[in-house]
Write a structure and sequence with these properties.
36% helix, five-stranded mixed β-sheet, Nucleotidyltransferase, domain 5, alpha/beta, single chain, 350 residues
């Protein structure tokens, strides 16, 4: 959304609450191919609700990925999410691009709960009828963007694009799944501390929301209820076993947290239906590390009565088995969706 300059090749860099992910792609005659990828874990509270609290630690992790994967490119596309990000679909009278550009500041001040001087604004025309045009308005607090770009500078990288997590997810989905232009799909990226929800029809975003819930709540609940340390709780959360803990105990705790997530998704869907007349969600696609929490996708199918699947970010991207361990990629896949969507921004312009 927010371009910082021109570049031919970009590394997709996703700075999440639990890890930093980087993906490098190249364009071939067959489409896109994976060049390199890396994930580096972050200590607890290094990134909180999308805000980087320990910049040197994150910069060190970024450098570590680039060094270990021998990535020479310094230009990156990164993304932000959370309370400092506002995305609104705004109906406006039909007008030319120049007039729209002039009007967008005044329009934004009515929809954004921050001082306009404190935000970076971007807009995109979505759909036009004879009497109305729908414009996607995006505002991100300047200090939020600086929080990310300063860390990238510390790591010796150049931020060329700062996107929104929800749009990077949509980008990844569109390239890999060839969406039906008439079908409404809910894309969920459930990370460690934030869940991005993006409801789209075909290639058009209809409704976007970030919710401060995620995988950390499962870990916290397991630690508290079973008196475990962080590492053991993480192992249980992702399907591992521990002496003295029954499957029933674990399932009951996981279910109680899944119910909280599902309630937030349900509230979002209800709000969307109330504001988007005649639009019905037909399918749910889930990314993020939390997608792998045992039983979560089954609960979503049961609750919403529609197809639910895990997003595979390399469905249409060539993975050379001579260069990459496909089993490792399958294991990490849901966590790489945002980084893949960001890396695809390299190919937005010829």
């Amino acid at each position: 959304m927010f371009g910082m300059g021109k570049s031919k090749s970009l590394i997709g860099l996703d700075i999440g609450s639990s890890s930093v992910k980087a993906v490098e792609l190249k364009k071939t005659k067959q489409g896109y191919e994976l060049v390199s990828f890396g994930i580096e874990p972050l200590a607890q509270d290094t990134v909180v609700d999308g805000a980087i609290m320990d910049a040197p630690a994150v910069a060190e992790r970024i450098s570590s990925i680039f060094d270990s994967q021998k990535i020479k490119i310094k230009d990156v596309a990164t993304s932000v999410s959370g309370h400092s990000v506002i995305v609104k679909r705004v109906p406006m009278p039909v007008m030319g691009e120049d007039e729209l550009y002039d009007r967008i500041q005044a329009e934004a001040s009515q929809h954004i709960p921050f001082d306009i001087a404190d935000v970076n604004l971007s807009h995109q025309l979505l759909e036009t009828t004879d009497s109305q045009m729908d414009v996607l308005l995006v505002a991100v607090k300047k200090d939020k963007i600086l929080n990310h770009t300063n860390v990238l500078a510390q790591a010796g990288k150049t931020p060329v694009i700062v996107d929104i997590d929800a749009f990077a997810l949509e980008n990844c989905f569109e390239v890999n799944y060839d969406p039906d232009p008439a079908q409404v799909v809910a894309l969920l990226n459930i990370g460690a501390s934030v869940m991005n929800i993006n409801i789209i029809r075909g290639w058009t975003p209809l409704f976007t929301r970030d919710v401060s819930v995620g995988g950390n709540q499962y870990t916290d609940a397991l630690q508290k209820e079973l008196d475990l340390n962080y590492e053991d709780a993480e192992r249980l959360k992702m399907g591992g076993t521990l002496p003295g803990v029954t499957d029933e105990q674990r399932s009951s705790i996981l279910r109680s947290v899944s119910d909280i997530l599902i309630l937030e998704i349900q509230k979002t869907f209800d709000f969307f239906r109330a504001t988007a007349s005649g639009e019905n969600i037909r399918r749910i696609v889930v990314a993020g590390g939390t997608a792998r929490v045992p039983g979560l996708l089954d609960l979503l199918r049961e609750e919403f009565g529609m197809p639910v699947e895990e997003l595979y970010p390399f469905r249409k991207i060539v993975v050379n088995p001579g260069r990459h361990d496909e089993e490792k990629i399958r294991e990490m896949a849901p966590r790489l969706a945002i980084a893949v969507g960001l890396a695809l921004r390299s190919f937005d312009t010829p």
